[in-house]
């Protein structure tokens, strides 16, 4: 296994920054001036890990940079990536890819159970990271990666792959909630209706084909026998073949839950909950539940009092605020409840329902055109820009998205222990339920470390 590198920033990246500043006598210039039109020295050297499926969704943006390393545990998928990036060095083991000299950044599109590993190893090598959602498979992994990045914030750019965040509706929802369209916020209900029931891990079936490095696919998780069913899905949807199994994914929590919670999270300005509770279908030691409801309490902030946030999935749903509003028609949505009404939203649209005797809307003034939140633009492009000038913000950095997924993962723990517990987010400690504390981290196979 490659040794842990030194923590000094890569010399080439320093060159990108210092050469930008040179001649102008300032530390940072606007990116348009820094980069010029396609100047080769202004392109990032990127490693793409996972070169098919979701990985291919990034080809268009990555083609404008230098993709110098490709890594996939499936050699056929590696060849697929190499058709677009013929000059890149090829790897089947991401640990080796991350040690390629001269890298600036990594795009990680692998299975969920390797995300925190790849992200953390990349941060150890002072590489910018774009990681597909979710950031980790358990609370501990998310906390490690988030804390690591916070130490390097301002030097390294991170983004978690919840690209729907760039849909203008995300900003419109935020504006309506924080500007008081529903009065003071009290509750948030988010849900997803996707159901992928599985009885248990797939039984042993045949040997892995030669092009597939199955042991590397299992990676840090406990070994499970090979079955082609884990690889049977189409491009960009194969995650549905493995994400319901505890050792590989977190079901709809890490899948659509990441996107839906982003829509909620963007509008509520919270960090970590003070409690978690959950109920759902009977526990299956192999499979993440299809049907579950989890709830979290958050303290007051500077614009709302204490709030309760709930996540419903697999058929569980919040109660409709009015008979004529059929929430079941919204497959993946969020409902914000305030003292004067409700706002129901999906990714691209929203409906306002003033409610109660005082809901005369006199308390709400839509913001003027010049105060409307600006469009995010391209989501992947926002990360690329921040890699070139890390003083720039990304919308879904490892703090913002880390907090959201840590909360969701606490819900899975509450479901497993069947109890409500109190949580100290600063310390990452469950305060009153040792069984829940024991589920904060997961065990890795020998030879695999999160901090390499
Ligand atoms: N942002 C989105 O809208 C979106 C959409 C689909 C999937 N995703 C996410 O993208 C990720 C990949 O999903 P997918 O459906 O493409 O899955 P997949 O199983 O097809 O995997 C993607 C690629 O990664 C490779 N791979 C798997 N493990 C690897 C490893 N350890 N090292 C190197 N390569 C590895 C696979 O061979 C494949 O080529 C998942 O985490 C999923 O949650 C995000």
Structural commentary:
This protein is of the alpha/beta class. It folds into two domains: 11-164, 3-Layer(aba) Sandwich (Rossmann fold); 167-196 and 251-376 and 401-437, Dihydrodipicolinate Reductase, domain 2. It is 28% helix and 17% strand. It has 15 helices and 15 strands. A nine-stranded mixed β-sheet has the order 13-12-11-7-10-9-8-14-15. Strands 3-2-1-4-5-6 form a six-stranded parallel β-sheet, sandwiched between helices. Strand 4 (105-108), helix 6 (112-124) and strand 5 (128-131) form a beta-alpha-beta unit. Residues 1-39 have low confidence and may be disordered. The structure holds nicotinamide-adenine-dinucleotide.
Going by CATH, the homologous superfamily of the largest domain would be Dihydrodipicolinate Reductase, domain 2
What's the total helix number?
15
Q: What topology, given as strand order, has the largest sheet?
A: 13-12-11-7-10-9-8-14-15
Low-pLDDT residue spans: 1-39
Total domain units = 2
Q: State the share of residues found in helices, binned by percent.
A: 25-40%
Radius of gyration from the alpha-carbon trace, in angstroms = 22 Å
Bound molecules: nicotinamide-adenine-dinucleotide
Shape: globular
How many beta strands in the DSSP annotation? 15
The secondary-structure element order is HHEHEHEHEHEHEHEHHHHEEEEEEHHEEH
Structural class: alpha/beta
The CATH class of the largest domain: Alpha Beta
Could you give the distance between the termini?
A: 9 Å
Largest sheet: 9 strands, mixed
Q: Judging by the overall fold, what is the CATH architecture of the largest domain?
A: 2-Layer Sandwich
Strand percentage: 15-25%
> What fold name stands as the CATH topology of the largest domain?
Dihydrodipicolinate Reductase, domain 2
Q: Could you report the average pLDDT, rounded to the nearest whole number?
A: 92
